[in-house]
């Protein structure tokens, strides 16, 4: 397989900026030299871990591992000792790559350590590897048990990034800005490896801020990646931030992922900037499956159509395909294509259970198809599909309706057992102004008028904040637990 990063071997790209974290930066020549030196030190290691802080060292470590043909496990610096211990025991890395002087907690500190010198000099010489060889092992969030390690092959990385380049018109002239964590697919694969594969550059904010977004987009950056929490903060800041609105209006591409972007925030950003935020849909196990095209119209609340090379279908509970593109028929998303992982590390049982007999991956996400073929995700099968009064109801559309009410700042919807309905719809809301709360009946009727009477919440709970993970996803299994 050819190199994942052609620009690192291209003399014409040598002086171009590749990475920037705050005041620290590397050109393509400097990155090739540092990655080449580190790759020579780790060559032949079976598997390694990367202490994935938002830093130049993490980016260099990832490129070096891929250059050496050594699969790596990005470690979340915020993980507790129990979760880190499980991941290290399961993946058994030979060593850990970390920044010089970085203090590592146990049990990570017990590994042999190689420090990443971003100014080291070496020869960039990619190892001979195949597309099926593992690139990295990314651990799932573990919402239904201990985290599982998804083995991502090199061909999945290459095909996903190339497909996104096609639909987003992503080139070496683009400058990406983001403040995403680097232990997961969104921030690391799309946000760091993506620009490097194109021969472009990335400016990492270190920590997300609307001021940082305005500064970088106002200083030549062309693309912004974020999660819904970040775009919500942008939408909240826009009325009092004309420089932010101007910067966003001048960007070539605004992309949201990792969770559904509320339509209300999408519309507020569009009204203030004239720009829409493009949504895409992916998973740890599949990388990217769908996206709105950069040159397409798109519809708020949809995640576009399947990417080139990706097959996607919706199925009933019994596995029967759903052919209707009516915006109403809910089914589980199943996908297959070169973007898929090869399996869960050390879990042949879980791997077998994740696929159908004919090779489709069961995502567990529920969606409808619109008339134009675009996908509208309504939630997770395990937590967001509510069967009430004989109807299949997706939590996502109710959440969007609640967020359209001026009295609601955040919203989540779940189902709970009901003797009459099977399940009743439960809303969990964070109020915009706790001193002037709308009546629960008003919120229920608001949903009923916008969607349908059978989709209105039967119970409303008020919270100070919704529980979220590091990627901004609402942890619904934590709702109602003290």
UniProtKB/TrEMBL annotation:
Family (UniProt): Belongs to the ATP-dependent AMP-binding enzyme family.
PANTHER family: ACYL-COA SYNTHETASE, ACYL-COA SYNTHETASE FAMILY MEMBER 3
Domain AMP-dependent synthetase/ligase span(s) in chain numbering: 15-345
One Pfam family linked to the record: AMP-binding
Domain AMP-binding enzyme C-terminal residue range list: 397-473
Ranges that cross the membrane: none
Name this protein carries in UniProt: Acyl-CoA synthetase
Species in which this protein is naturally found: Streptomyces macrolidinus
NCBIfam families cross-referenced by the UniProt entry: PRK07787.1
């Amino acid at each position: 397989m050819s190199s994942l990063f052609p620009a690192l071997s291209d003399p014409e790209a040598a002086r171009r900026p590749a990475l920037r974290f705050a005041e620290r930066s590397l050109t393509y020549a400097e990155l090739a030299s540092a990655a080449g030196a580190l790759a020579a030190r780790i060559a032949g290691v079976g598997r390694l871990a990367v202490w994935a802080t938002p830093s130049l060292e993490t980016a260099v470590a990832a490129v070096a591992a891929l250059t050496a043909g050594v699969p790596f496990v990005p470690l979340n610096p915020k993980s507790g000792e129990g979760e880190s211990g499980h991941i290290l025991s399961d993946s058994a890395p030979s060593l850990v790559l970390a920044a010089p002087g970085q203090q590592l907690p146990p049990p990570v500190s017990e590994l042999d350590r190689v420090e990443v010198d971003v100014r080291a000099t070496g020869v960039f010489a990619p190892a001979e590897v195949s597309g099926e060889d593992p690139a990295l092992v990314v651990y799932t969030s573990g919402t239904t048990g201990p985290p599982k390690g998804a083995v991502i092959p090199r061909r999945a990385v290459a095909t996903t990034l190339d497909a996104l380049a096609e639909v987003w018109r992503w080139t070496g002239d683009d400058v990406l800005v983001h403040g995403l964590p680097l232990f997961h697919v969104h921030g690391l694969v799309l946000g760091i490896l993506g620009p490097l594969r194109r021969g472009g550059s990335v400016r990492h904010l270190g920590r997300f801020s609307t001021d940082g977004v305005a500064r970088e987009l106002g200083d030549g950056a062309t693309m912004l990646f974020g999660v819904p929490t970040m775009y919500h903060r942008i939408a909240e800041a826009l009325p009092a931030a004309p420089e932010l609105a101007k910067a966003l209006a001048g960007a070539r591409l605004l992309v949201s992922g990792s969770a559904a972007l509320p339509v209300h925030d999408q519309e507020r950003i569009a009204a203030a900037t004239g720009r829409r935020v493009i949504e895409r849909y992916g998973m740890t196990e599949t990388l990217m499956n769908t996206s709105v095209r950069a040159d397409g119209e798109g519809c708020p609340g949809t995640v576009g159509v399947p990417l080139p090379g990706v097959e996607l279908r919706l199925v009933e509970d019994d596995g029967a395909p759903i052919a209707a593109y009516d915006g109403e028929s809910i089914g589980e998303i199943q996908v297959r294509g070169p973007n898929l992982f090869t399996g869960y590390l050390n879990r042949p049982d879980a791997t077998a259970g994740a696929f159908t007999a004919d090779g489709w991956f069961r995502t567990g996400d529920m969606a409808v198809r619109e008339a134009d073929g675009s996908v509208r995700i309504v939630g997770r099968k395990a937590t967001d599909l509510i069967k009430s009064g004989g109807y299949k109801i997706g939590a996502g559309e109710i959440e969007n309706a609640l967020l359209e009410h001026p009295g609601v700042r955040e919203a989540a919807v779940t189902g709970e057992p009901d003797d009459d309905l099977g399940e009743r719809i439960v809303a969990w809301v964070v109020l915009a102004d706790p001193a002037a709360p709308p009546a629960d009946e008003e919120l229920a009727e608001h949903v009923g008028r916008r969607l349908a009477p059978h989709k209105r919440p039967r119970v409303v709970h008020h919270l100070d904040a919704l529980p979220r993970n590091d990627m901004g996803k609402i942890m619904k299994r934590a709702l109602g637990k003290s």
